[in-house]
């Protein structure tokens, strides 16, 4: 197997896993990931991972929130943070001359947050506004509602940002306790891409994070749940437009089968040459927005099909979607020519990971936090080449069954 990139790794005295990718650019990328996201939250902790991601920027032992923002801006680069089902990630990218400054700022907000009460109360309102804003968007609302209908006990039932009633009741002490449980060096991965020597990078991480004490990490065991197969409609006066959303959950697929499923998803709706795009948009003009979306991350395993349209076109569009799925499963729409094209598209997407140090860092930290092989994508390129059409059809039959199907009909008055 050809190794498209090389890295060296190191573990700090307090347990941080550090990975360094050697590049030859004037920029560095710095990703810090903590293995805590919404899938590890207890029912009474919904949204705390996301809340905590916000709060570490609100003040430390040496900086208030204004100083944090100003110091990050002084880096004159790129910064971001996000919370997913699985983890919380903080990212910086800037010129090499700002490397130590970025590392110092990042270590300060991660190791020394103080959670000021006044900022906590402000951030509550910010997060509540964020949740409300999402629910005002029909696409976001569709995903929110189908999660409630498709699962009974899974973490997939609630949004990563949590529920408004939970955010309202949380106290500063709740956030502090959550931080103490999970923001630990031995629950953390740092990935750096730079032109610096490995020894320099590892020594600087050791230096700036040395005061962070490790303790035992106890993550929740994750219980997977199959989606409930049903079809239903929701009537809403809040939206003028309507939509259709299919949800399929799956488990116990091999890597080979997951890659076959990625080809199926691309074929259904992940590009402008896909079957649903051509049939619903190009041929019928029923919709502007139509796509499929695949989440292969650990413990999630979901395939969605989504389209946005006028209420008058719901029945016709659903019939087209159902027929397209049947034709994929029967093999009618999966032939050597289409499979060859989909293989090219996926291989291009995978290979593009290597074009940018930040993309490579993002990929690497995601793989490590998810417990996957760092060189998995290179093996995947080889597997994709060897996939047979018959295998892809079998996976379609295995996954594309018993969906949760939700229709939101906008502009209608709800009858008592």
Write the layout of secondary structure elements.
Elements: E1 7-11, E2 17-22, E3 27-34, H1 48-55, H2 65-74, E4 78-83, E5 88-95, H3 99-111, H4 117-135, H5 138-150, H6 164-169, H7 172-182, E6 188-194, H8 198-209, E7 230-236, E8 242-249, H9 255-269, H10 275-283, E9 287-295, E10 302-309, H11 314-330, H12 336-351, H13 357-369, H14 376-386, H15 389-399, E11 404-410
Parallel strand pairs: 2-6, 7-11
Antiparallel strand pairs: 1-2, 3-5, 3-6, 4-5, 8-10, 8-11, 9-10
Helix pairs in contact: 1-7, 3-8, 9-12, 9-15, 10-11, 12-14
Helix and strand element order: EEEHHEEHHHHHEHEEHHEEHHHHHE
Main beta sheet: strand number and arrangement?
Answer: 6 strands, mixed
Number of helices in the DSSP assignment: 15
Rg, alpha carbons: 23 Å
Q: What's the rounded overall pLDDT mean?
A: 91
User: What's the helical proportion of residues?
Assistant: 40-55%
Number of strands: 11
Low-pLDDT runs of 5+ residues are none
Strand content: 15-25%
> How are the strands of the largest sheet arranged?
1-2-6-3-5-4
């Amino acid at each position: 197997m050809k190794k498209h990139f090389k890295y060296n790794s190191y573990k700090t005295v307090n347990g941080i896993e550090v990975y360094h990718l050697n590049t030859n650019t004037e920029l560095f990328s710095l990703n810090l990931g903590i293995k805590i996201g919404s899938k590890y939250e207890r029912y009474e902790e919904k949204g705390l991972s996301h809340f905590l991601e916000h709060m570490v920027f609100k003040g430390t032992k040496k900086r208030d929130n204004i100083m944090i923002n100003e110091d990050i801006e002084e880096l004159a680069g790129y910064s971001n943070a996000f919370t997913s089902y699985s983890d919380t990630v903080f990212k910086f990218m800037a010129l090499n001359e700002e490397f130590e400054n970025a590392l110092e700022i990042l270590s300060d907000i991660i190791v020394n947050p103080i959670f000021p009460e006044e900022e906590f109360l402000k951030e509550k309102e910010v997060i509540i506004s964020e949740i409300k804003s999402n629910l005002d968007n029909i696409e976001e609302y569709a995903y929110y509602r189908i999660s409630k209908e498709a699962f009974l006990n899974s973490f997939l039932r609630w949004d990563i940002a949590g529920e408004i009633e939970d955010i309202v009741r949380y106290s500063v002490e709740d956030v502090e306790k959550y931080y103490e449980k999970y923001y630990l060096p031995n629950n953390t991965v740092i990935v750096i891409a730079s032109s610096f020597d490995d020894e320099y990078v590892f020594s600087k991480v050791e230096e700036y994070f040395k005061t962070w004490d490790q303790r035992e990490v106890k993550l929740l065991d994750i219980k997977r749940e199959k989606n409930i197969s049903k079809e239903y409609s929701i009537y809403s006066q809040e939206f003028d437009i309507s939509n259709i959303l299919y949800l399929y959950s799956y488990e116990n697929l091999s890597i080979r089968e997951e890659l076959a499923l990625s080809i199926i998803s691309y074929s259904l709706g992940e590009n402008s040459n896909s079957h649903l795009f051509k049939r619903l948009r190009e041929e019928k003009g029923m919709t502007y927005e139509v796509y499929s979306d695949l989440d292969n991350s650990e413990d999630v395993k979901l395939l969605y099909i989504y389209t946005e349209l006028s209420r008058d076109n719901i029945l016709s569009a659903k019939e087209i979607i159902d027929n397209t799925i049947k034709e994929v499963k029967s093999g009618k729409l999966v032939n050597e020519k289409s499979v060859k094209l989909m293989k090219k598209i996926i291989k291009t997407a995978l290979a593009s990971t290597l074009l940018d140090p930040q993309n490579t860092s993002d990929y690497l930290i995601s793989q490590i936090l998810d417990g996957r092989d760092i060189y998995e994508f290179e093996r995947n390129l080889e597997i994709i080449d060897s996939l047979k059409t018959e295998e892809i059809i079998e996976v379609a039959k295995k996954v594309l069954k018993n969906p949760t199907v939700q229709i939101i009909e906008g502009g209608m008055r709800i009858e008592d």
